Amino acid sequence: MTDWSSCDSACTQVSLSYSGDQISYWASRMSAHNAGAWQGGWFLNDAWGSDATEDTRGGEDNNYADHNTMWAYSGHGAGPSNSAGETFVAPFCHAGTVSSCQYDAKNSDWGEHGGADATPYVGKARYLLWLTCYSVDVDPIHQWSPSMHRGLDVVMGYRGTSADSSTTDEVGGDLADRTFGDMVQWKPAWFWAMEDWWVDDVGSIFVSGSSSTDASSRRDNIMWNWGERTDGAYYNWFAWSWHNG
Amino acid sequence: MKHSSIISRACTVSLVALLMLACSTGPTQPEPPAITNGLAANAAAPALRRVNDLRTERGPTALLRDEPAAVNVDRLRQAFRSKTPVGKLGLGVYQLTPVAEVAAAAVNRAATLGIAAAAKPEVAAGELRPERPWAKVAVGPNMLLLNGLSGDENFTNTDLFHRGPGSKSSLSDDEYLTRANAHAAKILANGSAVVFGKMFPYKLRRYMNAVATDGVEPDVDVYQVAVAYNDTIDDIPVIGSGGKVAVHMTVDGRVVGHEITVRGVRSKLAAFEWADLTDPEGAQQEIEERLKQRGIDLSQFNLTRTEFGYLRRGRNSIQEVVAPHYAFVYEPKPGVMGKKIYETVPATTNSGLRKILADDENRDRARKAALWVAPGARH
Prior knowledge:
Helix content of chain B: 25-40%
Structural class of chain B: alpha+beta
Oligomer: heterodimer
Number of helices of chain B: 7
Strand order of the largest sheet of chain B: 2-3-4-10-9-6-5
Number of strands of chain B: 15
Low-confidence stretches of chain A: none
Largest sheet of chain B: 7 strands, antiparallel
C-alpha cells in the first residue's frame, strides 16, 4: 500500500496500491539485465518536488532525477492547461528545496547538454518512464519540448488515465526485459510492455529530432545503446505515437 | 441445506479438486458432482447470457468488447434481488492445461510458424529463471518468445512491429478482421489446446504516429492495426488481462506480430450453482471493503465497469485454475487526481473452492515476491 500519510498535505492524494510494485519490478529486471547502473526511480513516498526540478530554478535534479540515464516514476499525474498549452504535473511527497511538492514539467530541463541550464550542471537523463496518468498526453510538445530540445531522448507514459492494478504492476519490468533482454527499440518495447486489452490503458511515447524525418526515424528506431546527441545539438521537431480504439 | 451439510460437501469438493490439481496428468476427468443445493432452478429460461447468443444477435464480425462480461452482472443482480434464481448456471472451476516445456516447444513452434525449420532456442531446457522465464528463437527479423511459467506466446517481426510506415488511409475494420481471423485460425490449428472457434472478436486498435514542430499542426498517420480475440469457457467470457489472442498488422494488412495469452482447460475440478454463487452486491461490498482497508476513499470514484466471467491473469502470471469472478472498475471523478482501479473477486462463497483459488493466486504472488526489490530510497 502506498499512501500520503507522511507527505506534505498540499500533495495528499488518493492512495495507490501498486505504485511501489511497478517501480520494484522495473528496478529488479533492470538489475537482472545488468542495467542497474542506469536506474534511478522512486515511487511517491520517496520523491521530492525538487528532485526533478531544474537546479538553475532552485531544484536539485543534478543530484537526483537528472543524475540518471533513465528515470522512472510511478504515482499520480495530470495534464492541466497553462499559458503554453498542456503541461504535466505529478504530486510528489515533499517539496524539498523548491516551493511546491508538486512537480511541474515546465520547471524541469532533463538531460541538458547546452543552453543556460547546462551551467553549472549538465543533465544526464536520456530516457524517462512516467507510470502515471496523462504523462504523454494529447499535447506532448508543450508538456515535454523544453527538455527534448537539448538532451532528453525519449519520454514514455500514458495518454489519459492509467490503471492502478495487479494486472499492470509488471509493465516496467516487461519494458526492461524487452529493451535490455531482447535488444528491442524503445517504441515497440514500451507498447508491448503496456499492452493490456482488458485494462485499455493507452500508452504513448515522445521523441525529438533535427527534422520531421529525423524525429520520426528516431521515434521508431532509438534503442537504449544509441549514442548521446552531440553537445549543443538542438532538436525542434517532435514525433510521438499512441493508439485509438 | 443444513450448514453442516454444505461444509461437508464443500470439503469433499475441495479435497477432490486438490487431489486432481496435484495428480492429474491425463485426459479430461469425468464430470464431478455439482455442489448446488438445488435452489429453485427453472430450466425454461437461461440464467446467463451466452456469448454465442450475443454473436448471433450482433453478427460474427461484431467487436463485442466487454459487453458479454457486463450483461451477466445485471442478470445476476436481478436474480438475487428477486430471490428467484432462474435457470441452471452450469459454472465450473477448471484446471488449465499445463505449460509445456518451452525450450523444445519454441523450436517446434518456430517451425510451425514458418520462422525457421531448425532454429535453436536461446534458452535451453532447465535454464529458465524466474526473472527471465522466456525461451526465445530469433531468426532474421523474426522473434518468437515462449514463457515457461505462463505459457504466453509472443511473435514479432522486429523490423515492422511498431516500426512500420504510416499511411493516411487504412483498410476497413472488417478487412482487418478477415486477415486477423485467418492468421489466428492458422496459429491455433495443429493440435493446439486453444480452440479458436470458442473465441470472439474483442477489440480493434489503430496505432497512430504524429510529427510536428512547435506551432505547427501535427501530421498524423495510422501505422499499425491490431485485432484482439477474447476466450470463452462454457460460452461465458474470460475477463482479465489473459485469455486473449492479439494479431498485429501493418496498415496494408500484413501480420507483424501476435501474442497468445490463452491456455486450454484440461479438467473440471468442480461445478457450482446458485447456492454457492456470490451475490453481485456481496462481491462489490467485499471489493469496496478491501479498497477501504487500503485507504482508498471511493467517494472520489465512479464505478464504471462491472463484469462477470472466468478470470485469467496476464502474460507473466502463473495460473493453474480458472473460475468465475466478478470484476469492478472504478474511475476518478472529474477533478480528482486518481488512477483507474481494477479489482476482482471469486464469484463463489464456497470456502473449499475459495481456498483452491486463493492457493493458486498465492503461487503467482510468490512468483512476484521473488522478483520484488525495495524501491530505491531517495533520502
